[in-house]
């Protein structure tokens, strides 16, 4: 079915041309590797873009992101290298030795098992520092007390001992005890079995066998145990190893039952499927789309837990694939819940746009160079791209104040840290300003740069210095986010780099966008503007008031502060004395004209 794209928010005309062309189909848009990478989004605000839209449209959307809609035959079964046994590190061996010594010290007959992700990752040959110990006949908190008592008996110290309480209303059914051994956190829980009453989804917890516990896990690849007593891997569902080797995301029990037990498992399945690039089982997908499961995810799982999963996806190695699964499984409006009282109303197709922008940003980051951005810069770039379709949409907060919708998504839907929406909104607000400056950097002729800040005044400087002033003010506003803003502006800018088709010069559109980014980035660095936001005014407020013969500050002082910053940007080697002399001359000249 063709997606409803009639009212896409601010959809750029070349993209709209392609989507509504007679040859377009939803299958080709989402799935055909020959046409489907969204790496050349362009603004439709200028008439010059329309004249070359037919050429540009051939370059759009080169790579698939939503693989679930593919009409191509399924890929062959993956063969994932899995180790025959687990090799322990020295630290792991010391930890397990202390736990087994505790058993001997108190003459316990229990078995200790490492559960879940640690076993999976060790079999895949990956490092893992997330050790969860499952105990067969004692609670986690009771066992931690015994470990602490044993360590004290041999003059060793137990660190960070604590308990995380169960919270059935939020689908956290099990109490978890924690402690640090050899500078590594370890969680302790008891093996469990669960009984459900007829009219309740909150289970009655009781001690269970290792097999019962394995079947209550989220995925078969996470249901494996490492028996510390026997130094061996246990596959009690009978398919954990097989699914790991074939690269399959499957639940041990029927997926709907597993998801209703803990709806967060839907997002965990998506995250692991994307992270390992494993195939998600079709029955699992069908259960994830079920309204009962989606309602449970919205009602039973805290926003903090949802936000944590999204954060792990965005910061992971396959963010586009993860978000594509969320969109394909119709979970997008559940995860990224929007507020009421929106202006303008969110149009159909915003989810599609989000994926297009995210894929474009991810592709461009890799083309420019993954290490050119820090982890936090990549993270903010991807969030900024994902929520780009919402940048001009606002809502009324509890105090009746109009706020960007992005603020609500971060603070209320995902419960992310308070700085995240501020940074993403700042990037969004700077994109248009950055886009207007790009022609001044790419033009071979000397052009007058626009004043990107309405409060900014150009000092009496040559045209060549005005680009440095305009760019300097913008970078002082966006600070160290400027490369992210440039990245998104490069995606949206109607550059002449897109005016020629691949057939004309053989250069892929992604390379052109990378070239544009590099050209502007190099020019900004050549102007010496990196870290310009740390530049201190050469003349302070008191000195300004003295020259102007004012007794108190006000709008006039603020106006002169802007002028002084303009002078400093135009004269990067200028001194305080030179700036003060310029200010006196300018002020006297202006006063003389008035008189």
Automatic annotation (TrEMBL):
Belongs to the tRNA nucleotidyltransferase/poly(A) polymerase family. InterPro entries: NT_sf, PolA_pol_head_dom. This is Poly A polymerase head domain-containing protein. Residues 112-249 form the Poly A polymerase head domain. It comes from Linum tenue. One of its GO terms (biological process) is tRNA 3'-terminal CCA addition. One of its GO terms (molecular function) is RNA binding. Keywords: RNA-binding, Transferase. GO terms for cellular component: mitochondrion. It comes from the Eukaryota. The keyword Transferase applies. The keyword Transferase applies. Signal peptide: none annotated.
